[in-house]
């Protein structure tokens, strides 16, 4: 837990340069939420949900008041959130009394801190969630008033086949995401127990690698090959 304390102290100094709209979109993506204003995060619901993503079983989600609107309900959720941080020995005190008032500035500043904390503890989880929440392809709908002849029957058969393939691909994607999520939970739990940390971190690097990272690595490799070719031409 010592590394986590250091991470929190570092991330509490500065925050990423993201607008309120970008921050709100990030929260809604992570928790499949419908928050319309930063002030609504004073309910504490989103923070409890995201803490459970980073540290499974750190919060009893059944105790979270999902439709919290009154101050005492928000206070209840924020205390669950603070309790999770305390149990994990994370050196951060939540300004509960200010947050539950629902003022924009207090909630925005705290969200900026939590965003950096989240990224430091679960890098790449955002990419997995974004992929899971991506727009799903819609099945092809046949045109109306198709003549009942041999060609129309072939067309309907083709459409049905394409629809089935779409459903199969979506099902495989969902199962693959669930497997990745289970792997991530196991890695996180193992790291939290301070076991096989180096190996788990290497696996996480592979798990969280994006297409952009791979393209960048490919470009670097090509550049090195070009340099080698130039050096060989000089001799």
What can you see in these coordinates?
With 235 residues, the chain is an all-alpha fold. 67% of the residues lie in helices and 0% in strands. It is built from ten helices and no strands. It has helices at residues 2-11, 20-31, 45-54, 71-87, 96-99, 104-121, 125-132, 150-192, 197-208, 211-233. Helix 1 (2-11) packs across helix 6 (104-121) and helix 3 runs parallel beside helix 4 (71-87). The longest helix is centred in the last third of the chain and has 43 residues, at 150-192. It is globular.
What's this, in brief?
The chain is an all-alpha fold and 235 residues long. It is 67% helix and 0% strand.
Main features:
235 residues
Radius of gyration: 24 Å
One letter per element, helices H and strands E, the order comes to HHHHHHHHHH
Total number of beta strands:
0
Q: Poorly predicted ranges (pLDDT <50, ≥5 residues)? A: 5-15, 130-136
Structural category is: mainly alpha
Q: First CA to last CA: what distance?
A: 55 Å
Proportion of strand residues: under 5%
- Mean pLDDT across all residues, rounded? 76
Number of helices: 10
In helices, the fraction of residues equals: 55-70%
The biggest sheet amounts to: none
What is the global morphology?
Answer: globular
Topology of helices and strands:
Layout: H1 2-11, H2 20-31, H3 45-54, H4 71-87, H5 96-99, H6 104-121, H7 125-132, H8 150-192, H9 197-208, H10 211-233
């Amino acid at each position: 837990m010592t590394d986590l304390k250091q991470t929190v102290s570092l991330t509490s100094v500065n925050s990423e340069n993201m607008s309120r709209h970008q921050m709100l979109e990030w929260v809604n993506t992570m928790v499949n939420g419908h928050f319309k204003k930063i002030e609504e995060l004073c309910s504490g619901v989103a923070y409890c949900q995201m803490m459970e993503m980073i540290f499974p079983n750190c919060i009893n989600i059944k105790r979270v008041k999902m439709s919290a609107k009154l101050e005492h309900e928000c206070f209840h959720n924020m205390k669950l959130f603070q309790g999770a941080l305390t149990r994990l020995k994370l050196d951060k005190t939540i300004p509960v009394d200010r947050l539950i008032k629902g003022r924009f500035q207090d909630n925005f500043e705290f969200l900026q801190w939590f965003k950096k904390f989240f990224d430091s503890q679960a890098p790449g989880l955002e990419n997995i969630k974004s992929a899971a929440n991506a727009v799903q392809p819609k099945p092809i709908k046949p045109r109306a008033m198709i003549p009942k002849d041999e060609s129309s029957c072939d067309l309907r058969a083709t459409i049905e086949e394409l629809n089935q393939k779409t459903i199969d691909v979506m099902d495989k994607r969902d199962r693959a995401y669930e497997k990745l999520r289970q792997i991530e939970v196991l890695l996180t739990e193992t790291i939290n127990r301070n076991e096989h940390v180096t190996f788990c971190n290497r696996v996480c690097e592979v798990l969280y690698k994006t297409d952009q990272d791979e393209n960048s690595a490919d470009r670097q490799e090509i550049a090195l090959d070009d340099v080698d070719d130039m050096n060989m031409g000089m001799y």
